Structures are given as structure tokens and as C-alpha cells.
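>> Question from a student workshop board

For tomorrow's exercise we were told to take the sequence and the ligand below, predict the bound structure, and bring the output to class. My setup keeps failing. Could a helper post the expected result so I can at least see what it should look like? The ligand is adenosine-5'-triphosphate.
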Amino acid sequence: MDPVRNPYAPGAGQRPPELAGRGRELDVFDIVLERIARGRPERSLMLTGLRGVGKTVLLNTLRSQAINRLWGTGKIEARPDQSLRRPVAAALHMAVRELAPRHRAPDRIDAFLGVLKAFAQRSAPAGRGAAPKLRDRWQPGIDVPAASGRADSGDIEIDLVELFTDAAAVASDVGTGIALFIDEMQDVGPEDVSALCAACHELSQIGAPLIVVGAGLPHLPAVLSAAKSYSERLFRYQRIDRLDRIAADQALCAPAEREEVEYEQKALDLLYEKSGGYPYFVQAYGKATWDHAPRSPVTAADVRVAAPEAEAELAVGFFGSRFERATPAEREYMRAMATLSLVEGEASGAVRDDMDAAVPTAEIARALGRKPASLSPARDALIKKGLIYSGERGTVAFTVPHFGRYLRTQPA
Ligand SMILES: Nc1ncnc2c1ncn2[C@@H]1O[C@H](COP(=O)(O)OP(=O)(O)OP(=O)(O)O)[C@@H](O)[C@H]1O
Ligand SMILES: [Mg+2]
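>> Workshop helper replied:
Here is what the output should look like for this input. Compare the format with yours to find the bug.
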């Protein structure tokens, strides 16, 4: 069928033509926004899940929801080894700029911007008289002079509490709130995570309307609770998972219907079998099938013809790009994981994709004929690269769905 009219959108953060199966999360967030704007106690959301399940897309949709309620919003994508100070400053700058036109006291906005600038310019204490590096002289694009004595102590925990409190006060003035969205939140460094939790804790106690909404890999809750034990009570964790059959069918059929295209039931059966309901795969198979199908209705035979192309594209765009980030030693480690997870899956006869099962690290060491401790560097590097995660102590699993199957097709 006409590739120009192909509605499907495989790709990182690509807005799907139909956001299927996320109604509950959207409803919950609406209530959170309403309650917080009214000064009611409410926990913020943390979305967790594997690669490609739609965390970024959902986070962007929640942001639109906040904007529709006239909240100020800003978004950050965390990176390993990067301080939060500047990204947070830039995101709050944007959030307050959204609120400013509705604020009746421009001097209050300017006062906040002065604090924001001081916060942004204050990097961590240089330590032992080190000369300020060039990057520390970074200038945020804020046209007011930096204030002093607030949010500029250099202690990120103190500074975040003060900055968030002031930002929330600006939002209170216009009767809404501020939502700060953090994607890839598992990559925020330990000191910054700890400061973020402390700031959220403080703000929720004084009923200030500022929330942090995060998204990250499945071990995000462990990252947060390692920083502050109370984080479990501070946030509401929502596991974003693959789509159930009804939602996956809707993700395919609703956009097709708008183009007057239909699917035969058997085509949908086969598409679900291939995608396992993982949103990225739903889009990838949907897209290839559309291009190959000669006409509506789409048949199972069309899906069969198109599948190799979808798989080839996934091998490059979804799996390969990640695999290439691993060193030879790390690849060896992941291959051992892939082999072991297959055995585990077959033994338990699990229907759920066996490739995504957690594997004990001790068994990986045994399979490779190595001492467990000698494999820690490879494991830690793979966790840092976001390719594997450790959900339970002593086990690891792939963050990328179906990664084990992909690895087994790769020549050693
Ligand atoms: N609810 C949904 N219904 C249909 N398609 C979806 C849905 N959510 C996401 N998608 C599609 O899935 C793909 C992956 O989405 P997204 O990039 O948000 O995943 P992610 O969880 O952020 O992945 P990563 O961990 O790699 O960042 C995109 O192509 C998107 O269009
Ligand atoms: Mg993402």
C-alpha cells in the first residue's frame, strides 16, 4: 500500500499514531495534577520499563497533559557522569517562561530568574583551590543579574530545595504548578538523585506545587531507594509494560482505519506473535507489513512476507546500535547471558518470552569458566551503558526485549 500514507512510527521517542493501552497512567496523572494544584498531598509518578516499551512517549504525553492544565513544564534527559545543575536550570527556566505571561508581578519572575541564574552558575565546589574550568564559566541565557544567598551554596541538596520552593511559589501565584520531567532517570548520579529525593520530600511536606516525573529502566526504584530509603513512599512507581492483545490490536487498527485499511484476524494474530506486544516491535512490524501488503484487508501472508524486512531493520536500528556500544569482553558476557536465559526459559516452559528472563551472575561466571569477581567490570560497564540491569541481587537481565534471541543470531 502507499508508503507515503504509512502511519506507523518505529523509532526512539517517536510519537505513535495511536497511544494504545496507557489510559490508566493518563488518568492517574490527571488526578495527581489536580490534587497538587489544590495543595493536596500526592505522590509523583516514576515510569519504569524495558527499552522500547514507550516510556519517553508516555512522558511526553504527560507533559502535554500538564501544559493543557496551564502548568509550567521542563524536561531533561539524564546522562551518566553529567551534573544535574545545568539541565535542571534550563528546564525550570523554560517552565517559568511558560508561566510568566500569566503572572501579574513581573518583578517576582525576575527575582526568581536571579536565583535561577545563581543556581546555574554555581558548580560543585572546585575543591583544593582548583582553577575554575572553562565549562564552569557557562552563562545561562537569563537577562537578569544573578541574585545571591539563595540556591547558590554549592551543596546541591540545599540548593535544589531552595530553587524548587521558589519555582513552586511562582506557579502558586498563577494557581497552577510546575512539572519537571526526567527521562533516563537511572543515569542521574548518586549525589544528584539523593538531592532530588530530598527536594521532592521537602516540597511535598509544605504542599508546594512542584513535581518531578521520572522515567527509567526497571532498576530505577533500586537507584532511588539506595539514595534515600523513603523514596519508596515518595513516588508512585508505574511499570510500563508490553501491550496486551487488545491494546496492540488497537495500536495497529486505529491508525489503519483512518486510512480506510483493515486487518484480517489472522494477520493480527501473527503480528502479535511476532511483536510480543512490545510497542517498538508493534510499530516496526506494522510499518513493514503496510509497505508490503498490496491492498486492504491485510492478510497473514502479507505479514509473513514483510517480517524479514522488519527484523532486518530492528537488527540494525534497535538491537545493532546497542550491541555496537559493547566491547568484546562485554559481548562475550552478554552471549553467555543469552545462552543461559534460553535454557532457563525452556526448563520452566515459560510462555512469556524466555529471552527476557533474569540470569544468576554466578552461572554466567561458571559458563565462561571465570571467577565471578573478574567479571564485575564487564557487568558494571554493561549496566552503565544501559544494556543490562540487575533487578534482584545476584542476577542480571537484558534491558532490551528479545535481545537474547538477537544475540544468538549474531556470529561470534
Ligand atoms: N502506547 C503505545 N502504543 C503504540 N505505540 C507505542 C506506544 N508507546 C510507544 N510506542 C512506540 O514504541 C516505540 C518506542 O517508544 P519510546 O521511545 O517511548 O520507548 P522507551 O521506553 O522510551 O525506550 P528507551 O528505553 O529505548 O528509551 C516508538 O516507536 C513509539 O511510537
Ligand atoms: Mg526512552
